[in-house]
Amino acid sequence: MPDASTSFGFSTDDLPEAARAKVVRELHEHATLPNKGRPEPLEPLRDYRVRLNVTKRVLPGAIIMSGALCGVRHTIRSRGSVSSSEDDLLVAVNLSGRTIAHPRDRELVLLDGDAMLMTRDSINLNLIHPAPVNFLGFRVPRDAIAPLAGSIDDALVRMVPAGSDAIKLLVTYARAIAEQQQSLDTPELQRLVATHIHDLIAVAVGATRDGHEIAKERGIRAARLRAIISDITANLRDFDLTVAAVAQRQRVTPRYLHKLFEGEELTFSAFVLNQRLSRAHRMLCDPRFSDCSISSVAFDVGFRVIFRISIVLSVDATMRRRRI
Question: Which pairing describes strands 108-110 and 115-118: parallel, antiparallel, or unpaired?
Answer without folding.
Answer: unpaired
